[in-house]
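Example 3.2
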Amino acid sequence: MNDNHEHKCNICNEPKAEGQGIRVVSGFICETCEEEMVRTDVKDAKYPFFIHQMKQIFLGENA
């Protein structure tokens, strides 16, 4: 099956083809953001941003 639906990345908010990332619960994370997240040290200034965006996926938009 060729499924080329686009999804908006919950981290960068950019539209990406479904095959260009991962589904997490009801959210989507593009490959670029996934790679950046796994390489980001907990002491990095961007780390809290990633945590906040992940909360949006798990807790919904009201988190």
